[in-house]
Amino acid sequence: MARLTLISDIHGNGVALDTVLADVAAREVDEIVCLGDIAAGGPQPRQVLRRLRELGCRAVRGNADRWLLEGLPPGRSEATRRLAETVAWTRAQLRDDDLAYIAALPATVRCSVAGLELLSVHGSPRSDLERLLATTSDAALDELFACAGAHVLAAGHTHLQLLRRHSDRLLVNPGSVGLPLGTTTGSAPPLPNVAEYALVTVRAGDVEIAFRRLPTDIDALGAASAAMPHATWASDLEQRIRRWNARASR
Questions:
Q1: How far apart are alpha carbons 17 and 44 in whole angstroms?
Q2: What is the DSSP letter of 43?
Q3: Which whole number is the average pLDDT over 38-42?
Q4: Angle, nearest 10°, between helix axes 96-104 and 63-70?
Q5: I need a surface site. Which of 43, 44, 63, 131 has the fewest CB within 10 A?
Q6: Distance CA 14, CA 192 (A)
Q7: Nearest of 194, 204, 203, 200 to residue 154 by alpha carbon
Q8: pTM, whole model, 2 decimals?
Q9: What are the chain's domains?
Q10: In this predicted structure, what is the pLDDT of residue 76?
């Protein structure tokens, strides 16, 4: 038996990452792969980067990781203005070696789980901005799996857990560690109280995909968020993700 953990979209939420890693530690996992969007957004960017580097976790670079290198693309909404300031704050927390680590992250990670070929990306094999959803056309998936050259395509970016069969291939999205959509509390400001990830288990040729959703310590996350320039970081980011998901599903 071989088992791989897929995590994605941590967005600087170290409280959620620690919750996930504690759960993973009890499950005899051979490897952890991160699908990007590691540090930007939440209150603990350096802690998250340090944890991944200590683990030797292989990771791809997501679009929000590029924000830390290039800045957030401009927008007109007040939420986007606040998010740009949050990204600038995140970059200021990072050291040169943190930024060098992010800059060196690859666009894809390819691995084999007991003979099962898996390609990990942030958005898609074509772009870290492309969103793969339940509504993505079969024709688009034909093209993407041809690019992937793998039995399993693992993609993040949408913050939505997804398992979709396409012919004899599988599309898997583990959801978001740091900000699963629809999990923010009614507190002021709203903060995510759940963390998500996925387990890929291969046993005697059988493939099992298991999704995990774990409660997190909202008080600890609130305390960590107090140092940020905007306490609305989660709702600002969630608003952006929902908007772009909706555009991709039309």
A1: 10
A2: S
A3: 98
A4: 130
A5: 63
A6: 12
A7: 200
A8: 0.97
A9: 2-248 (3.60.21.10)
A10: 84
